[in-house]
Design goal:
Blueprint lengths: L1 H9 L14 E4 L5 E2 L10 E10 L2 E8 L3 E8 L2 E7 L1 E2 L15 E6 L6 E5 L11 E7 L8 E7 L5 H4 L11 E4 L3 E6 L3 E2 L2 E2 L4 E6 L5 E6 L10 E6 L2 E6 L4 E7 L5 E8 L3 E2 L2 E5 L4 E6 L4 E6 L3 H4 L3 H4 L4 H8 L4 E8 L2
Parallel strand pairs: 7-11
Antiparallel strand pairs: 1-26, 2-26, 3-4, 4-5, 5-6, 8-9, 9-10, 10-11, 12-13, 13-16, 14-15, 16-17, 18-19, 19-20, 20-21, 22-23, 24-25, 25-26
């Protein structure tokens, strides 16, 4: 009881009245976006991306689709080299068999430990039985084995706080980690099926999974959190899907915000840098060269452009839109 009271005393809402804007820019790579497909395979409703490694001029990523699949993406230069399905082996597939929906969202690779974490949203009447963060154990602890052999749910404390704002189809679409902490981004609050003007970030110790900080994004102007990534301790990148913006937060050691920056995301059609569409940003990661990647989980009601735009596209691009093929964007972080 004393431990819980002490923990709750530490929780606070972070304000940014003294935060400074950073002197950085995000430049879109004009060879992107790319369609997440090859001649043999594609992704579907891609909601998560995490960088694994750079080897022999190829960059390796894991992708999570919210239809319940995970893929290994390999980029070769500025093209899709391959997309390969990850298998749930050794009966690990049975773990998710009782879920009303395998609503996979964020996926994160911990380069220090080799652990992979998956955020899943809850559905159905008993949604809180399913929402949460899950550790995926790969065969020989090697992602390139493409075989998951064990799944474990992570328990964050206090559980009353972790589940306080979750709801049907509302969970932690943003999830990131640094050397010592987990960052859990609640997608947002809904009123009458519309998202309100803010979301929450919980920060938890990696050592014991205890939540030690609660941060409201209202004063930041962040309405939704649909992806998070930490490139170093106390540094957090994220996506506000509803505003189609990318943000960066720097914390001090008490998790007060000392700087905050926000950037407009690109919305150009692959191969047509003078035409736009309406992407739905879902996840963010960074490679070992400092490039940022963002995936788009097509929001079917608005994903396909209007006919006057479709009339300007080639048949393959039009087909990609009508098949709801996800896309991937790339940015370079620069100093002015």
């Amino acid at each position: 009881m004393i431990r819980v009271l002490t923990l709750l005393f530490l929780l606070s809402i972070c304000v940014v009245s003294n935060a400074q804007n950073e002197n950085i820019n995000l430049l879109p790579d004009f060879n992107y976006p790319l369609w997440l497909k090859t001649d043999q395979s594609r992704t579907d409703q891609t909601s998560g991306i995490t960088f694994i490694k750079n080897e022999c001029d190829k960059k390796y990523f894991l992708l999570a689709d919210d239809i319940g699949s995970i893929n290994l993406l390999i980029l070769n230069g500025d093209s899709i080299f391959s997309i390969e399905r990850i298998l749930f082996a050794n009966n690990s597939d049975q773990f998710f068999s009782v879920f009303p929906k395998k609503d996979f969202e964020e996926i994160v690779y911990d380069e220090n430990t080799g652990d992979v974490y998956l955020s899943v949203e809850g559905n159905g009447v008993n949604f809180n039985d399913f929402v949460g963060i899950y550790k995926l154990v790969f065969e020989n602890r090697d992602v390139l084995s493409k075989r998951i052999v064990y799944v474990e749910k992570i328990t964050y404390e206090p559980s009353s706080l972790f589940y306080k704002h979750t709801a049907w189809n509302i969970g932690y679409e943003g999830f990131a980690l640094d050397d010592n902490y987990f960052y859990l981004g609640l997608e947002g609050f809904q009123n009458n099926y519309q998202f309100a003007d803010s979301a929450l970030i919980f920060i938890a110790n990696k050592s014991d999974y205890n939540i030690v900080k609660e941060i409201s994004t209202k004063s930041l102007g962040i309405h939704t959190i649909c992806g998070l990534y930490s490139d170093e301790d106390y540094s957090l990148w994220g996506i506000d899907r509803n505003n189609r913006t990318i943000f960066h937060i720097l914390f001090d050691e008490e998790f007060n915000i000392i700087s905050f920056s926000k950037f407009d995301g690109a919305t150009v059609i692959p191969g047509y840098n003078y035409l736009n569409y309406l992407p739905s940003y879902e996840s963010i990661t960074m490679d070992d060269d400092g490039n940022i990647y963002i995936v788009d989980d097509p929001w079917k009601e608005v994903f396909v452009p209007k006919q006057d735009i479709l009339d300007k596209l080639d048949d393959q691009t039009t087909g990609n839109f009508k098949e709801y093929i996800p896309t991937i964007f790339k940015y370079k972080v620069t100093n002015p």
